[in-house]
Amino acid sequence: MILRWLRDTTPDAVYTVYTALVEQARRPEFYTKTVVPDTIDGRFDMIVMHLVLFYRRMAVENVEARDFAQNVFDVFVKDMDRSLREMGVGDLSVPKKMKKIGESYFGRSEVYGGALDEADASALADAVNRNIFADGANEAAADQLASYMLRAEKALSDQSAEALMAGSVDWPELEV
Q: Do the Cβ atoms of 52 and 109 come closer than 8 Å?
């Protein structure tokens, strides 16, 4: 079971949702069929992508749902902090790296959110290409991920906030 260390400090449903989000982000087809780089950065980008989608879904709900989404985000922050420390980043460098992680999340959230608000697959693919495939632009893979993100946003909107807060998150399949 991944992220077992969070189980002691995280409410079950929040833990379940974050775990489902990370498991979805780690699905092999993202790294084989759309050739997302199977690196620390590539995996980070996939987690951020799914977290942005989940957070957007819950942001349109009541205070309880928004608080729940914030708790999921807080677990993400703790997970990133723990990961940095496990990779050997020194205590003095962790805050700088966490600031960069936060800036990356919020930057992607803004650019993905704008394209998702307009259901603009082309703008979304451009954003994905710049962020996920920054070292080697891959337009075909970016188009596939943009299509996935649009379908994921629809799939999440079709699920009730109550079901999501109970830990039931259904993600769409990646179509290639």
A: yes
